[in-house]
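User: Here's a structure from my thesis project, written as structure tokens. My advisor, Dr. K., wants to see whether a designed sequence matches the one we expressed. Can you design one independently, without my sequence as a hint?
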């Protein structure tokens, strides 16, 4: 079980001809192991940047990000990652896509020359089939290629691909936004069920405030300062463990309004 600690983190990006632009400004967050965190905010507020910092794909300009007490320097098996667009190899079957991470982790780039490879690959495929079934797919789907699957099925494979590595932390970046409404609803319920079963810490970035509230046990809203060059900070951090897809519409609507109001930057004061 891994907790996440984000300490006074700021991120600046270079802008051609304009020096540096601040994206995140002084972010302080503590995420306990096993929490389901939803992160919301307007486009360009740094939600995905924050996720990449936890992943270790980017480094903060100031401050530090710790997972399980260790500073993040590069992606590794501590954090699984499910992007908006499916990260599947088109020339590999579904099963081969799911076992790829296990194969590389165990054998490295010279797996074909390892005498234990055939036995271990049989074990990996058996485990991959178990994860396929957990995500609602079956053995026949495992023999297919990504182009033979619907968008929802591809996203299920991407989730299985991340979960089979048993990461203490699962990062999801707009993972359901490209799906049709019916498929999206099914995937939302699936990930909530898998979270309850596994106890994995999940950090879920979304533009959909209702989705954020119904999935997360805690919702964090980022918003830009009225002076946008100062970047985004935490505008709201609320616990919502009692909200789910079957909660009353009136309460959900009230909370949606509360969260979305926090993501709108206030205008700068005008002094006469």
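Assistant: Designed independently from the structure alone:
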């Amino acid at each position: 079980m891994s907790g996440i600690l984000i300490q006074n983190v700021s991120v600046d990006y270079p802008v051609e001809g304009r020096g540096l632009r601040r994206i995140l400004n002084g972010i302080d967050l503590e995420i306990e192991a096993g929490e389901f965190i939803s992160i919301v905010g307007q486009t360009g507020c740094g939600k995905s940047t924050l996720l990449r910092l936890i992943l270790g794909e980017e480094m903060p300009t100031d401050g530090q990000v710790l997972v399980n007490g260790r500073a993040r320097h590069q992606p590794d098996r501590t954090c699984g990652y499910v992007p908006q667009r499916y990260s599947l190899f088109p020339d590999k079957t579904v099963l081969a896509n799911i076992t790829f991470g296990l194969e590389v982790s165990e054998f490295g780039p010279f797996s074909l020359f390892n005498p234990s490879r055939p036995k271990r690959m049989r074990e990996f495929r058996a485990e991959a089939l178990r994860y396929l079934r957990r995500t609602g797919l079956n053995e026949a789907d495992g023999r297919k290629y990504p182009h033979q699957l619907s968008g929802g099925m591809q996203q299920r494979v991407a989730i299985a691909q991340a979960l089979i590595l048993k990461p203490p932390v699962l990062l999801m970046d707009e993972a359901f936004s490209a799906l049709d409404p019916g498929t999206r609803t099914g995937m939302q319920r699936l990930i909530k069920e898998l979270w309850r079963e596994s106890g994995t810490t999940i950090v879920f970035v979304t533009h959909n405030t209702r989705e954020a509230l119904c999935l997360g046990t805690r919702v964090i809203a980022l918003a830009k300062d009225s002076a946008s060059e100062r970047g985004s900070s935490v505008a709201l951090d609320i616990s919502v463990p009692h909200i789910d897809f079957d909660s009353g519409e009136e309460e959900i609507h009230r909370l949606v309004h509360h969260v979305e109001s926090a993501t709108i930057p206030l205008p700068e004061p005008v002094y006469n």
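When you compare it with your expressed construct, this may help: The chain has a mean pLDDT of 89.
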